[in-house]
Write a structure and sequence with these properties.
Elements (H helix, E strand, L loop, with lengths): L9 E6 L6 H14 L4 E5 L5 H11 L8 H25 L3 E5 L3 H10 L4 H12 L6 E6 L2 H7 L7 H4 L3 H17 L4 E5 L4 H12 L9 H7 L11
Parallel strand pairs: 1-3, 1-4, 2-3, 4-5
Helix pairs in contact: 1-9, 2-3, 3-5, 4-5, 4-8
C-alpha cells in the first residue's frame, strides 16, 4: 500500500531490436538513478529469477532445434510470471524504481510481429503472466535492424540471430515502432544509432516525468550528467 513514507514504485522497461544496447542503457540508467538517491532494482528478461535464468539458457541458446513460436511465447511468459511474482511486484510494492531490460512488449514484437502469432492471443497470455503489472514508461531504443545485427559479437549471438533472417528482424523493429506510436503516453522512442552517452542523455530525460513527483531526487536526475560507471544487476 502507498503511504506518505512509502511512495508508489515506478516501473521502467527498455525495449528495442537486437543490438540496440538495452542491457547497457538499463545498467547506466539504474546507476544514474541510484546516484541521485533512488532505491533501484535492475533486472532483465528472460531472467531475474532462478527459473528465469534457467529458461534464458534454453530460450537464447545458439543451437539446437527451432522452437515453435507459440511454445516460445509460453516459455517466455512462464519466466515472466515468475519474474513478476517474485521480483517486480514486491519491489514496486516496496516503493522501489524497477528498471528492466525487456518486458512483455518483446513478446508482441518477436513472437507476434516477427513470427506471426496472433497478437490478441499473445495479449491474453501476457495478461495472465503479468497480473496487471505494466511499465509506467517504456523506452524504445530504435535503430535499423542491419545496424543492430552488425553490433553483435560471437559471444552475444543468440538463436534469434542464428535462426531468423533480416526480414524477421525488420518486422520486429516495425512492430516496436507501431506499438510506440499507438501508446505515446507510455512509450518514448530514442535514437540508438548514436554514442552510448548521447543515448543515455535521452534515456534519462525520458524517465524524469514518471519519477515520484515529491522526491527531491527527481530534480537531481533532471540536472544530472550521464554516469561513467554502470550499476550491477541486483
Amino acid at each position: 500500500m502507498t503511504t506518505p513514507d512509502r511512495p508508489a514504485g515506478r516501473f521502467i522497461s527498455i525495449e528495442g531490436p537486437d543490438g540496440s544496447g538495452k542491457t547497457l542503457q538499463a545498467e547506466r540508467l539504474a546507476a544514474a538513478l541510484e546516484e541521485r538517491g533512488f532505491d533501484v532494482l535492475l533486472t532483465r528478461e528472460p531472467g531475474g529469477t532462478r527459473l528465469g535464468d534457467q529458461l534464458y539458457e534454453l530460450l537464447m541458446a545458439n543451437g539446437g532445434e527451432p522452437i515453435d513460436p507459440v511454445a516460445d511465447a509460453l516459455l517466455f511468459n512462464a519466466a515472466r510470471a515468475q519474474h513478476v511474482a517474485q521480483v517486480i511486484a514486491p519491489a514496486l510494492a516496496a516503493g522501489r524504481i524497477v528498471v528492466s531490460a525487456r518486458f512483455a512488449d518483446s513478446t508482441l514484437a518477436y513472437q507476434g510481429y516477427g513470427e506471426g502469432v496472433d497478437l490478441e492471443v499473445l495479449r491474453r497470455i501476457i495478461a495472465i503472466a503479468t497480473r496487471g503489472v505494466r511499465p509506467d514508461r517504456t523506452i524504445l531504443l530504435d535503430l535499423p535492424a542491419e545496424v543492430g545485427l552488425r553490433r553483435k559479437t560471437p559471444e552475444t549471438i543468440t538463436r534469434f540471430e542464428s535462426f531468423f533472417d533480416l526480414a524477421y528482424h525488420l518486422r520486429v523493429r516495425a512492430g516496436f515502432l507501431e506499438m510506440a506510436a499507438a501508446d505515446s503516453d507510455r512509450w518514448v522512442v530514442v535514437d540508438a544509432d548514436r554514442s552510448a552517452d548521447e543515448v543515455l542523455g535521452d534515456v534519462i530525460a525520458a524517465v524524469v516525468g514518471v519519477l515520484p513527483a515529491h522526491d527531491h531526487a527527481r530534480d537531481a536526475v533532471a540536472r544530472s550528467e550521464p554516469p561513467a560507471a554502470a550499476s550491477r544487476m541486483q
